[in-house]
Amino acid sequence: MRWLARDEEALPAGLLWLTPAEATRAARLRHPKRRTEYLLRRLAGKHAVAAVLGLPVDPAGLARIEVANAPSGAPYAMVDGAPAGVEISLTDRAGRAVCVVDTGPVGCDLEVVEPRSPAFVNDFLTGPERAYVTGRPDADARDAAANLVWSAKESALKVLRTGLRRDTRSVAVAIQDGPPGAWAPLTVRAVEGTVFHGWWRRDGQFLFTVAAPQPGPPPVALEPAAGLGGSGPGPAAS
To answer: Cβ distance 75 to 90 under 8 Å?
Structure first.
């Protein structure tokens, strides 16, 4: 499992790095924020796939790679119109996008540490998850815990190819604590008995989680000294 992050400042000025289908889709997105997020996810996905497959990342090279979406919404990658032979998951938040690449199904999610209301915790988290959140020693730790549990759920639901169409309480998260900037393990158990194995890390105000059906080592960065682009969220897309 390997990962790569990109921020908005890395977006190319033009659209020559997109495939025709991607350029058509981008043109249909009239809201600037949605369009920027779409482009940023494509940029992270293309750079990650190119790094794994040893492809060039000039505009012509990136235009050979297409990041499309299945009817379920799950992303997949093609190179020169054929399946890329790897599985990907994409996520974006606060001006950052991350792509995780693996040989099998994988899900990832990026969140920021922000306040979550008691109603959110009560409505979307299971009893043990609520106890994990409320048992944290201070407000920042409780906010981090709530967003971390939510992020882990999102990662597992992406592997299930359901996203938030499924009740978030139908998957239960168990977190092992770890130091900032380092990977720590997590598990997510679905009500039907499936267990997803994953990892999480906190970089500044960002929380990043990954999940997969099979256990494995922590994700490996595709770039040296990789992080999530700084200690805090970037500027919001205009």
So the answer is: yes
Contacts by residues 171-180 (CB-CB < 8 Å, ≥ 24 positions apart): 171/196, 172/126, 172/128, 172/129, 173/126, 173/129, 173/149, 174/128, 175/132, 175/145, 175/148, 175/149, 175/200
Contact between 7 and 229 under an 8 Å Cβ cutoff? The reply is yes
Alpha-carbon span 120 to 171, nearest angstrom:
16
| Cα 57 from chain centroid (whole Å) | 21
Residues 45, 100: contact at Cβ < 8 Å?
Answer: no
* Whole-number Cα distances in Å, 69 to 1, 88, 156, 198: 20, 11, 18, 23
Report pLDDT digits (tens) over 44-98.
Answer: 999 999 999 999 999 999 999 999 999 989 999 999 999 999 999 999 999 999 9
Q: What is the pLDDT of residues 86-119, one digit of tens each?
A: 999 999 999 999 999 999 999 999 999 999 999 9
Query: Residue 153 and residue 173: Cα distance in Å, rounded?
Result: 7
Helical pair 139-159 and 127-134, crossing angle rounded to 10 deg: 150
pTM: 0.92
Q: What are phi and psi of 152, to 5 degrees?
A: -65, -40
